[in-house]
Fold this sequence. Notes:
This protein is mostly helical and 552 residues long.
Amino acid sequence: MSEPGGVPKVVAGTSRYLDDRLGLGNVVRRNIRKVFPDHWTFLLGEIALYSFIILLLTGTFLTFWFQPSMGHVAYNGSYAPLRGVMMSEAYASALHISFEVRGGLLMRQIHHWAALLFVGGLMAHLLRIFFTGAYRKPRELNYHIGLAMFALALVEGLTGYSLADDLLSGAGLRITQGILLGLPLVGTYLSFFLFGGEYPGEDIIARFFTIHILLLPGLLVALVTAHLTLMWVQKHTQLARKGRTNMNVVGGPFFPSFMLKSGAFFMFTFAILAGLGAAVQINPIWLFGPYTPADISAGSQPDFYMGFLEGSLRMMPGWEINFAGYTLPLSVLIPGLLPLALIFGGLIIYPSVERWITGDTREHHFAERPRDNPYRTAIGMAAVTFYGLLWLLGANDEISDHFHIPLFAITWFGRIAIFAGPALAYVITYRLCRGLRLRDAQMIEHGVETGVIKRLPEGEFTEIDVPASDDMAAPLLGAEAIPELAGAEAAVDGAADGEPRPKGLRGRIGRLRARMSRAYSEPPITEVPGADGEGRKAVTAGESYHRPDQRS
Length: 552
């Protein structure tokens, strides 16, 4: 049975019942057709979201059988090589899940793969936000919520990775305890508080379990909800295209377009993770054995998102200093804390620094192409190179073993490359962005090469160029200029024509700000040297690009 209009009676009746009591009809009608811009890069954030949902579902399944206890038991399960071995109840229950619980190993592996994909999706999404300038007004708050989610995801991964209490995860936990002990004044107290006494204590697994399944997931759910709510209100930034401006949104409606695409992509993500969990082995804890502080392992590698800290520890030379009666193990403190401070500190303050340099307080709803902001892109690639080198050097022993390169040579290469690599990446990226902008300007000025050669009456051969199409030219001419602070030129070059420097740009800090503003600013494509912009104009807010008549 259906109501008039083809709506099933049960749906219509339920909707009318809820609307009469909750007044949701107008809210639903207003939001169900909400328009969202569409681009493949938006799927990066959705990958992280769907992986997080799968993490919650599989993690709930695993909690029914996992025992978060460090009580000692003799293993008598079905895995013969470990029968009779003394181990913690946590490790024994992880083996029980893997070998006795129906579907337990599949769920463990899906959970682990989902954790890796969750962090990887967050990292890729964060890079998209940074390189396209999507953190600018009015999205600063949502950007910092995303950074908080990323930081919590790293801690969530560390706590979950340690719960199995196998030899591999125990090695990572020992490194964590070493970094805590290296903190001056409070390090010993923090270590005793976390481990419940001398390492490894009897409480760490139970405490990590509570943090892993209750505290951090609750915070992540709250942050994800806030992030999605703000995204719903502000929408994604859209790329410059014909007909798109800062004042409109071009895309598909939430229903049915966005819902159908998102539902299909969730199933696709789940299928990939289920396939990996079923066919690709990950973290075979039964091969490592239970953790004991007296045992060590060779070739130990953490999950990829912690690899950069492993690399920094391996590259740092032994360095300790005595200060005020305290020994500061800088060989642990610097590699354990400095990379985190540089990466997260830089991500946190960069939007404010950029706004201070440019004085730009406008709202931005366009996603910039990375080439349109050469300095930001170069800084970002330097940071990516810094992270990537540390991540790679976290496997220096494996590289040495497989490629027969002396470990000492790899270590010294890493100590040099960690400084030279980011600097080189910065210079190369900056020059590439400049070159690409110049090529765009030349295409606007001269047109697009056709490959058709024409012979002139004088005998000269020349290639025929045609004007760029609307779709090709709109992203170039729609790019917003990066502004320069008013009076920056006078502050840098001295008082011009007897005019005093602007008040906010006086003194050393003011002159530094003015110099940085002049260097950081970028004109629109039509003002780049080599482009006369004849017949075309830059797109401003509230208007769209229209190609002039090119017929002669």
